[in-house]
Amino acid sequence: MIIFTLAFLFGDLILQCCSALPSHIEVLIFVFLTLGIIFLFKHPTFIRFSSGFAIGLIWSYFCASHLLNFTLPKEIENKPVELTGYVKSIPKKNRFGYQFEFHLLELDVNTAHYFPHIDITLFTASSDTSPQFHVGEKWQLPAKLKRIHGLQSPGAFDYEQWAFAKGIRIHGTVLKSHASRIETSKWYRYSITQIRAFIKYRYEQYSNHHETSPWLLALMIGEREMIPASAWEVLRKTGTNHLMAIAGLHVGMLAHVIRLLSYSLWKRSAQLMLWIPASEACLYFGCIAGICYAMLSGFLLPTQRASMMLLMSVVIITKRYRLSSWYPWIYALLFVLIYNPLSVLSDSFWLSFITIALIIFGMNARISCENIWWKWGRVQWVIAVGLIPLTLLWYQECSLSSVFANMITIPFLEFIILPFVFLAELLLIINLNLATPMLQLTNILITCLWKLLEYFAAFPWSSIHFAISSVELTIMMMIGFILLLLPSGLPGRWLGLFWILPVFFYAPNSLKSGEFNLSILDVGQGLSVVVQTKHHTLLYDTGPGFEDAFDAGQAIVIPFLHINKIKQLDSIIVSHGDNDHAGGLNAVVNAIKAKQILTSVSHLKNHKVQTCSAGQSWNWDGVDFKVIYPTHEVLALGNDSSCVLLIRNQYQTVMLPGDIEQFAENWLLDDNSQNLHADILIAPHHGSLTSSSQMFLNAVNPHYVVYSTGYLNRYHLPHHSIVDRYNQMGVMAFNTVDSGTLTFHIKNNSMLHKPTLYRDVHSYYWN
Question: Residue 586's pLDDT is what?
Fold first, then answer.
């Protein structure tokens, strides 16, 4: 079973690495080849591996093909349509409104009718006239739909991959016009989710809320939408973000509590003992309770794994099978892969299974001691050390305080807080008044725990930022840590250090004097550009940022800087004060030291800035930088006060014009028309109709133009007439919305190569 399951996983992974989904004919040929190989080589191990690999690949292919069967036609994107379907999830509130999953049965647009039977996400604005959606209801809704389109940049969260793993490829906005409820909720439709929604509704009636109340809701039903970004930062720094929701550990804890309770009650009845021994009956009750609690989380992936491991452990114990402790893990892995083979695209899949694998590997087959370190501290050490490669790959951050924080947090949470959470949840279902004292007590306990976590997070050494830029380096580092975690006394154990060291010596920037990299980051509707020379880095604009929502500085810019081993910015230029250019500044400055900030804005909150002014120039590593606009006389014109920067080496020139419009373009033509040529131009004002005048483009005469825009943005940028203007001049155009982050590698010679496009390098069949 172990060989079959691992081969199943390998076959699944092979398909997920494909840039295009194989055809039915290719899959059929593969099946016949596999059958032929199995027939020729009849060794049992080879048969198990070959059959597991083939079944894994074919099953994941079937699930992926089914999900790709319906693709939203381009011509109806962002157009009013009529939807018919069921509300599938609990509506989650954010600062703008509510978002929920909707099972789409029918899609009507003009005379066309589609019957996709897929899950989509819908957003509805919050207002007094907005309809109230409840789980299980059938609705007919007017909406505008878009394909799932995420920002693609090195180190950033891949929303497209995450959504595909969940089976969602479309999201939309419910329009304010008439929406009609066709059918009310039925108890049998999404019944578990309806129970979760009922608990949430009851909890919202509880008036005495605390600052930590969102965590209590997360521990009861796994809903975490009200948790602020600052709280997640505390959890990341302390390595405890896996605890503050319904996790596999909590499922096991509840099962253990119910097992002890049922054992003490069951053994009091002689008749029940004759029917089933108390030692077995209590295992069944604990297993049932654990699985029920997992369902209340929405049966998320970690709880799927925990439930299956719990079930298999009960079977092995009650049937008295003599099996390795790896078997529950293997069966859980196979169950999750069969349930949803696309779950391998989720980081929670790997974190969940690798965590348990580390515990089994690091704690079994060892001569245990009776001291408290071995019983409790070593497991935290094994997990913390073993997960370092994955956390550096996905989050560019490693918690140094996680061992100590978890050693205190886990027992306090599991043995003190969670029993009250379980009791409060049970009473909440029965009656709110009965549950109120328990809710108050639980909130007080969570507040005490939270103060402790904030204390750990406040230490300067609480976490470090270090990025691993490739899967290959991650695998090398994991091999190194696995060797180090071998039982003491085994030869070659310390060779693991040699597998880890290459990670620290890898240097992505190998530029020479006079060369530079120009990276236009995919920040959506906004702009952020990173310029790297041999020893210096400049950041031009920081993308949009919204409080407790998306922040391009945190989500895109900082991961890019970490991936490229940039620990300090020699200069930040904020072209002007619009949010789509300056919104991410706070996050960037808080995370990365900046020597200076230049801007045309007279005052940026909480930052010491210098005014960018025409004539400022400097040279870094043989690359010249020159500000050619604005002057002090034109600093209060909004877009037309944007800092315009020219970057030159001996052969190539780049122009970064911010959001200048025709006034500034004309000023530049009048003042400096002979020196405006640039080989690469970032489209002024994202390709707005008020910019890129013909005279200005004639003077610049670029070879490449780059638009930095959002997918189907509300401003309809770049404007089609501006696109036509560039095309008529023969300028090669790129748009971050299509390419993701793109990087020009400017060499110190006359050759100007096409940029590296992130979406081309990281192309997958679901993109």
Answer: 92
| CA–CA distance, 376 with 630 (Å, rounded to integer) | 63
Determine the pLDDT at residue 164. Answer: 95
> Which residue's entry shows tokens 């949009």?
544
Dihedral over alpha carbons 197, 200, 204, 206 (to 10 degrees): 130
Residue-wise pLDDT for 610-641, tens only, equals: 999 999 999 999 999 999 999 988 888 999 99
Q: To which H or E segment does residue 502 belong?
A: helix 496-505
H helices then E strands: how many in the chain? Answer: 30, 27
- Please report, for the chain, the start and end positions of each structural domain, with discontinuous segments joined by +: 2-68, 74-189, 196-465, 516-749+756-761
SS3 category, 224: coil
Q: Which tokens is 281 given?
A: 């009956």
Three-state DSSP at 51 gives helix
Model pLDDT, residue 370? 61
Beta strands per DSSP E along 672-737: 680-682, 704-707, 732-735
Do the beta carbons of residue 757 and residue 767 sit within 8 Å?
A: no
Confirm or reject CATH 3.60.15.10 for domain 516-749+756-761, answering yes or no: yes
Residue for token pair 């910019």: 691
Whether the CB-CB separation of 335 and 327 falls below 8 Å is answered with no
pLDDT tens sequence across 194-225: 999 999 988 888 867 677 778 888 888 888 87
Q: What is the pTM of this model?
A: 0.91
Supply 591's token pair. Answer: 């995370």
Q: What are the structure tokens assigned to 179, written together?
A: 């929406």
Q: Is 47 helix (H, G, I), strand (E, B) or coil?
A: helix
Q: Which parts of 466-532 are beta strand (E)?
A: 516-520, 529-532
In degrees, rounded to 5, the angle at the alpha carbon of residue 700 between the alpha carbons of residues 697 and 702 is 90
**What are the Cα distances from residue 273, in Å, to 135, 277, 279, 281, 287?**
42, 5, 9, 9, 19
Residues of the chain with pLDDT under 50: none
> Rounded CA gap, 239 and 400, in Å?
8
Residue 536 CB-half CA count within 13 A: 17
Model pLDDT, residue 683: 97
Those residues whose C-beta lies under 8 Å from the C-beta of residue 664, and which sit 6 or more positions away, are: 629, 630, 634, 637, 639, 640, 641, 642, 644, 657
- Say if residues 556 and 539 touch (Cβ distance below 8 Å): no
Fold assignment, 74-189: OB fold (Dihydrolipoamide Acetyltransferase, E2P) (2.40.50)
pLDDT at 558: 95
